[in-house]
């Protein structure tokens, strides 16, 4: 299996690369500048400049792109649309590092976490843009996509426990009543899905056990 990790220099991207490398998978980092990840091979190219020729040999493409400023937030949609367009009708799988704000908090799936009164205002622009990109992704029947949302408390420096609960569209708490996961445990879940391919054209979510 050959895996490409896009935005591999980011915090999530680096841990996904590390997890895949530790499993002896064939991993290539796709970065804009110098490769800072543990991937032995790299492609230096902006996501929006990628072509199918660049990605055709990879069984799985993991999109770990993230944008945080008001000017760059729309790139969540722009970059994902570009990837879908070049992978349209192809067998390659596209896995996306998603957000938690779009997870539903009721059984009817009428209210999302980002719509609740306690959701932090500072995170609403990011959640809104990521939710928009997910809505657009759901319309792509021509792409073998999977969208993986983290728990609501997504901990960049959290410890690697090696244990997680795989859930679906709804915000899920663990046995301690918490919705949390480290970037490292999220990376385990992402690589597990890359290997298994069990949730094509689905949004799934993950929380620490």
Structure description:
GO terms for molecular function: oxidoreductase activity, acting on the CH-NH group of donors, NAD or NADP as acceptor. This protein is α/β, with parallel strands linked by helices. The protein has a single domain, classed as 3-Layer(aba) Sandwich (Rossmann fold), CATH 3.40.50. It has five helices and ten strands; from the N terminus they run βαββαβαβαββββαβ. An eight-stranded mixed beta sheet has the order 3-2-1-4-5-6-10-8, with helices on both faces. Strands 7-9 form a two-stranded parallel ribbon. β5, α4 and β6 form a beta-alpha-beta unit. The longest helix is centred in the middle third of the chain and has 15 residues. The mean pLDDT is 98.
What proportion strand?
15-25%
Q: What does the overall shape look like?
A: globular
Q: pLDDT below 50 for ≥5 consecutive residues: which ranges?
A: none
Task: Summarize the main sheet.
Answer: 8 strands, mixed
Determine the number of helices (DSSP H or I, runs of at least 4 residues): 5
Tell me the count of domains: 1
Layout of strands and helices, then pairs:
Blueprint: E1 2-6, H1 11-22, E2 26-31, E3 41-44, H2 52-55, E4 60-63, H3 75-87, E5 93-97, H4 124-138, E6 144-149, E7 153-155, E8 164-167, E9 180-182, H5 183-196, E10 202-208
Parallel strand pairs: 1-2, 1-4, 2-3, 4-5, 5-6, 6-10, 7-9
Antiparallel strand pairs: 8-10
Helix pairs in contact: 1-5, 3-4
